């Protein structure tokens, strides 16, 4: 089965996700700079989520460049990832609109964690399809960044019950470590 439709569909869904997130930035009533002040939490949530969507798009793009084929299991795994990514606008808006209160920050972390697990499932399905000795399987695998990210999500979710800023700090940390794509994948693609 050809992978091009999966890539095109995924790119379209990610573009729609970004569009929905930006639509949550409501135009303030008033023309002074002070009218923008209430939008700061919403805007900062948007920036964080935009970076995460960009990270997923970048990594998904690289993964699909190395994939030679897809099958039904891969298509469902990809839809599973897109499901969790499609919840980003809701989690982003809820967290920003409620000025980083505990439950919205916890829910944001849960959505982010599930998206990370869905990405892992997609990667695993592609590795299985391509075989254990394939270039794909030799390029992808669990890294320190993967392990640290999962632990950081757990700390973020649990720590948010103490103070939501623990969660926010962990989410920013995860975005920072994933901002630069995996060098091993970049080398293979080049």
UniProtKB/TrEMBL annotation:
Q: Where in the cell is it found?
A: Membrane
Q: Which domain of life is it from?
A: Bacteria
Annotated catalysed reactions? K(+)(in) = K(+)(out)
Task: Give a yes or no for keyword ATP-binding in this entry.
Answer: no
User: What is the official name of this protein in its record?
Assistant: TMEM175 family protein
Q: What is its main location?
A: membrane
PANTHER family, from UniProt? Answer: ENDOSOMAL/LYSOSOMAL POTASSIUM CHANNEL TMEM175 (PTHR31462), ENDOSOMAL_LYSOSOMAL PROTON CHANNEL TMEM175 (PTHR31462:SF5)
By sequence similarity, the record places it as follows: Belongs to the TMEM175 family.
Transmembrane portions of the chain:
6-23, 35-57, 77-96, 103-122, 151-180
Give the source species. Answer: Pedobacter panaciterrae
Membrane topology of this protein: Multi-pass membrane protein
Q: Which UniProt keywords apply?
A: Ion channel, Ion transport, Membrane, Potassium, Potassium channel, Potassium transport, Transmembrane, Transmembrane helix, Transport
